[in-house]
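Dear colleague,

Thank you for sharing your sequence with our group. We've completed the structure prediction you requested, and as agreed, I am returning the results in plain text so they can be pasted directly into your records. Please verify that the sequence below matches your submission; if there's any discrepancy, let me know and we will rerun it promptly.
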Amino acid sequence: MLPYELLIGLRYTRAKRRNHFISFISVISMGGIALGVMALIVVLSVMNGFQEELRGRILGVASHMEITGPANELADWPGLAAQVAGHPEVRGMAPYVNGQALLAAGSETKGALVRGLLPGEEGKVAEFASHMKSGSLADLMPGEFNLVLGADLARALGVFPGDKVAVIAPQGVVTPAGMLPRIKQFTVTGLFRMGMYEYDAGLALIHLDDARKLYRLGDSVSGLRVKLADMDRAPWVLRDLAKSLRGDYYLSDWTMSHANFFQAVQIEKRMMFIILTLIVAVAAFNIISTLVMAVTDKQADIAILRTLGAKPASIMAVFMVQGSLIGVIGTLAGVVSGVLLALNVETVVPWIEKMLGMDLFPADVYYISELPSKLNWPDVWTIGGVALVLSFLATLYPSWRAARVQPAEALRYE
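Please find the predicted C-alpha cells below.
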C-alpha cells in the first residue's frame, strides 16, 4: 500500500486544474529543466570531444614525454634508451633533433621548426605515417638531404614534391668576410597534414643524420621522445624516471609542455557547467511559482485533510511529491534527449549547416572542421543529480507554506 501523501501528490499532478495557468507553468517548468539538462549534456560532450580531438592531434606530433640533457644535447641516447625501456609503462622511444631554420624557395621564405628523426623509429612515438598526403617518411634517407613538409608550409613556399628548398640554419660559419649562415639544399619528398595549423604551417622533417650535420651535433641528438601505455599517467612516470635515471637529464611531459592550453579548456568546461546550470535553476524557480499557486488553489483541500487528521508534515509531503515529479519528468526528458543529441552531433551539425547554407566551423578559422562529441557518463549522472537536487530544493518553501495553512481560515469563505 502506497502512502496516502504519495497518492494525493500524484493525483494532484495528473488532475485537470480549474486554473489552467498553473498547468501551463508546470509544463514550462518541465520544459525548462529538460532544456537545461539537454544543453548541459550536449555542451559538455562537445567540449570533451573537442579536448580529446585536440589532444590526439597534438600528441600525434608531440610525444607523451621528452628527455634531453644539458644544452639540449644527448651524447649517448642508446644508453639512455636502455634505462628508460626498463620502466613497465614505456611503450616506445625515438631520438630526435630539433632546430630552428629559415626555409627559402624562389622568392618565398618562411621560418620553421626542423625536426630530425629516424623514419623507422618515429612511428613508435608519433603518427605522421597516417597523415601523409604524399610521399612517405621512408623517403628520408641518410645523406640524401630529403625533406617532408607540412602541407600549409609547402603551400606558403609554393613547392611540391620534387622541388628544391634551401634550409638556412642559424649556426653560422666564420669567414674573413664575417659570419655567414649555414645553407643546405633539400629536396621535398613528401607532405603531411596533421589538422593543426601550428604543425602544418611550421614543421619540416628531415633524417636524423642530416639534422646532425646541419646543426653540427656530431653523434649527439637533441633528446629522446617517449610514448607511454597511458598518457594520463605521464606525470607519475616522469617522477619515477627522474628518480631512477643515472645522469643529468631534463624531463618534461605533455601536461607540462601544453599545460596552459589544457588548463584553459578545463576551466572553460567548468564555467560552462556553472553557466548552463543557471538554466536549470531558472526552471526550478518556475517550480516554486507553480507550487505556490497550487497551494493557494488547494487551500480548501488542505483544510479538509487537516480536519481529517493529516499532520503538517504529511501536507508538506503531498506538495513535495507534486513538485519533485515535475523535476523528475523534466530531468528524464532532458537526459534522454541530451544523450541522443550528443551521440548524433556529427549527423545533426551537417544537417544544420545544410539548412542554413553556411559552414559553422571553417577549417581556416578553427583547429578542427568537424564538431566532435564524446559522451562522458559520469557527467550525465552529475547533471541529472544536480537537476533533481535543485528541483527538490524548489519544493521546500511552497510545501512549508502549505503545511502552515490553518483549516479554520481556509474554510471560512467556502
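Summary note from our side: The beta strands are 65-68, 90-105, 108-117, 132-134, 146-150, 164-175, 178-192, 203-207, 223-228, 250-253.

Kind regards,
the structure core
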